[in-house]
């Protein structure tokens, strides 16, 4: 193969950002990172990145992001290579490196839990599908990256009088995390957030708390929420846009059917447009049991890309029998 694969550090950020930009010009990816995004994500516990180098030039990357779900430890595994050079064995070697490192992380951190590895790629990438299925993954679900233009955004609808509107507060973070985990406790392939994962995404520099809205009842229970982020590289790939991204949108079970999440999304879109954002994006499971894609279409979103979600499951190792006592 001839390429040197090693663990990446913050000193590799600029080269990583250059490679990701080259990849994105060739095909859409589910994880778009600039150099600054890489530096930020690299500080999260449970995150590892690897790079393949031809001399000083990075020609491929892989990595994982670990989180603890109610019934498993989940690893989002990703990677890609320079589209200007023949792939050869490099993509398989990179992804295998990330999987081996994730398995080692699992043994060190949550050895009693089963493991779920998830990988996503744009629909129609047959070479990638051959690669991941060869490593044991199977296609399980489809996800939409949806995009809305923010020209002529209407005024948001009125909110119910029995609920209190606030924005995201660091001091209120744990209450919101627990509410989110309750909303998504049964979501396919995991969508809850442990404390480290939540802090890395929701308390980081890309979070836009003033555009992240929460509705709570009189007793302080969360009824609905819509959180907003802004990344250096827009999720849609449209570099000409200033894009607000919704990482989490949810409604507590007792309040479903009231249109609360849609109302909060509309409020964020209106506020973001007034601030100079020109587009909004979000990611949704195509078979979301709550019909979320239809809800977002009514809010002005349209499917921009379709991604295939591949999954690989491994059981927790059986405990070893204790050694017999010596006579």
Automatic annotation (TrEMBL):
Single Gene Ontology MF annotation: acyltransferase activity, transferring groups other than amino-acyl groups
Claim: Acyltransferase is one of the keywords in the record: yes
Residues of the N-acetyltransferase domain: 163-324
UniProt cross-references to Pfam families, sorted A to Z: Acetyltransf_1
Domain of life: Bacteria
Keywords: Acyltransferase, Transferase
PANTHER family: AMINOALKYLPHOSPHONATE N-ACETYLTRANSFERASE-RELATED, AMINOALKYLPHOSPHONATE N-ACETYLTRANSFERASE-RELATED-RELATED
Name used for this protein in its record: GNAT family N-acetyltransferase
Organism: Nocardioides luti
């Amino acid at each position: 193969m001839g390429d040197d694969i090693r663990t990446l550090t913050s000193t590799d950020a600029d080269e990583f950002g250059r490679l990701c930009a080259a990849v994105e010009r060739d095909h859409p990816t589910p994880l778009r990172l600039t150099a600054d995004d890489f530096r930020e994500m690299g500080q999260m516990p449970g995150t590892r990145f690897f790079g393949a180098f031809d001399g000083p030039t990075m020609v491929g990357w892989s990595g994982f992001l670990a989180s603890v779900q109610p019934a498993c430890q989940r690893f989002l595994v990703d990677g890609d290579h320079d589209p200007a050079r023949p792939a050869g064995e490099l993509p398989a070697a990179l992804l295998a490196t990330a999987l081996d490192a994730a398995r080692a992380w699992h043994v060190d951190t949550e050895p009693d839990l089963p493991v779920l590895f998830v990988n996503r790629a744009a629909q129609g990438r047959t070479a990638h599908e051959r690669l991941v299925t060869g490593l044991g993954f199977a296609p399980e679900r489809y996800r939409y990256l949806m995009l809305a233009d923010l020209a002529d955004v209407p005024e948001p609808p009125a909110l119910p009088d029995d609920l209190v509107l606030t924005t995201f507060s660091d001091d209120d973070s744990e209450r919101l995390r627990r509410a989110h985990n309750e909303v998504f406790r049964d979501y396919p392939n995991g969508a809850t957030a442990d404390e480290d994962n939540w802090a890395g995404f929701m308390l980081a520099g890309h979070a836009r708390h003033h555009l992240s809205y929460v509705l709570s009842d009189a007793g302080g229970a969360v009824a609905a929420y819509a959180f907003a982020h802004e990344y250096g590289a827009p999720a849609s790939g449209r570099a000409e846009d200033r894009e607000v991204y919704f990482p989490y949108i949810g409604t507590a079970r007792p309040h479903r059917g009231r249109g609360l999440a849609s109302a909060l999304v509309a409020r964020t879109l209106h506020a973001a447009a007034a601030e100079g954002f020109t587009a909004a994006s979000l990611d949704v499971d195509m078979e979301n049991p709550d019909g979320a894609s239809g809800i977002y279409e009514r809010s002005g979103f349209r499917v921009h890309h379709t991604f295939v979600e591949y999954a690989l499951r491994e059981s927790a190792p059986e405990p070893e029998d204790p050694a017999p006592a010596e006579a």
